[in-house]
Specification:
3-stranded mixed sheet; 6% helix; mainly beta; 107 residues; 5-stranded mixed sheet; 1 helix
Length: 107
């Protein structure tokens, strides 16, 4: 789901619209949770992303590898530890500092 981030009083008073460049509040990974142990080889990915002044969409990295399509389910994961990272990006795909990361185990 995509939501637009509301501006804070500080942003409005100072005209500082850069907070979405690094705000961790823009992206939340809801599933899997940090340290989760997942049975089976498939993973349902659930997250929230709040669009910002610069942040237009997110990029998905699985174990450090960019996944071009943003699936809601990741199929066929090998057993063992994994990392999912979502990084906010501009409309021109420039990565911003805002990100969320979780580590989980497929058993």
């Amino acid at each position: 789901f995509f939501f637009f981030k509301q501006k804070t009083a500080y942003e409005i008073l100072t005209c500082d619209w850069s907070s979405d460049v690094c705000s961790s509040d823009l992206i939340r990974i809801l599933h899997p949770t940090e340290g989760a142990v997942i049975s089976g080889n498939d993973l349902d990915l659930d997250f929230q992303f709040f669009k910002g002044e610069m942040a237009d969409h997110v990029h998905l990295y699985l174990d450090g590898h960019y996944i071009k399509e943003l699936p809601r389910a990741i199929m066929g994961l090998a057993r063992g530890p994994h990392e999912i990272r979502l990084i906010a990006a501009t409309g021109k795909h420039q990565l911003l500092r805002a990100n969320a990361t979780v580590h989980f185990l497929i058993k």
